[in-house]
Amino acid sequence: MSTSGYSESLADTCEVVGTIDGDGHEDEYVIADITRDGAWISIDLADAVKLDAMR
User: One short Pfam family name for this protein (predicted)?
Assistant: First the structure.
């Protein structure tokens, strides 16, 4: 994972959220920094790691 552009002061201004988006046939899990334009990533919901598996 790249940390290019990361700084502690930048981290204090971020607001990162996650949501499920789609029409029911091709749902995606989306993670986005809603304080910046274009700062998001998505993955097919079926391929996303379950929350319990990350603990």
Answer: DUF7556
From CA 43, how far away is CA 28, in angstroms rounded?
Answer: 5
pTM of this structure: 0.64
Instruction: Walk across the sheet containing 16-21 and list its strands.
Output: 16-21, 28-33, 40-44
Span 1-50, pLDDT tens digits: 455 665 666 667 889 999 999 886 889 999 999 999 999 999 998 898 88
Q: Determine, yes or no, domain membership for 54.
A: no
Strands (E), the chain: 16-21, 28-33, 40-44
